[in-house]
Amino acid sequence: LVPLKPDPFRVLLQLFAYEDVWSNNRLDNAFATGPATEGTNISNQSDDGDFVSGEGSAALSFYAPQLLSFLLHGAYFDISSKLEEWILKKC
Questions:
Q1: How far apart are CA 4 and CA 69, in angstroms?
Q2: What distance in Å separates the CA atoms of residue 30 and residue 19, rounded to the nearest whole number?
């Protein structure tokens, strides 16, 4: 069984709630480029309720303002440096 990509919106909610999205690569997986698993569509759900995301780069473009706003105004603790590095790597 191939794991499905997590929904970018749900992963960002976890990030904004200061939940760990780094150790399990949920942030990377949610915004990974390339198609979703072969034979799947946007209506498929994984076991944890996340929807499949087949448009990682489009999702990243859509959520970029929220990510940058969080980086500039709301990222506390150790998230700020990790998020900055992740955004620069994706650019």
A1: 28
A2: 15
* Chain segment 30-71, per-residue pLDDT in tens: 988 755 444 334 444 444 444 444 467 788 889 888 888 888
- Are the C-beta atoms of residues 15 and 27 closer than 8 Å to each other? yes
For residues 51 and 5, give the distance between their C-alpha atoms in angstroms, rounded to a whole number. Answer: 7
With 0-12 / 13-18 / 19 or more C-beta atoms within 10 angstroms meaning exposed / middle / buried, residue 41 is exposed
The tokens for 24 are 């399990």
Q: What pTM did the predictor assign?
A: 0.65
| Straight-line distance from the first to the last Cα atom of the chain, in angstroms, rounded to the nearest whole number | 31
Alpha-carbon 76 to chain mean position: 18
Is residue 45 classed as helix, strand or coil in its secondary structure?
strand
Task: Report the chain's mean pLDDT, rounded to a whole number.
Answer: 74
Q: What's the rounded Cα separation, in Å, for the pair 38 and 71?
A: 34
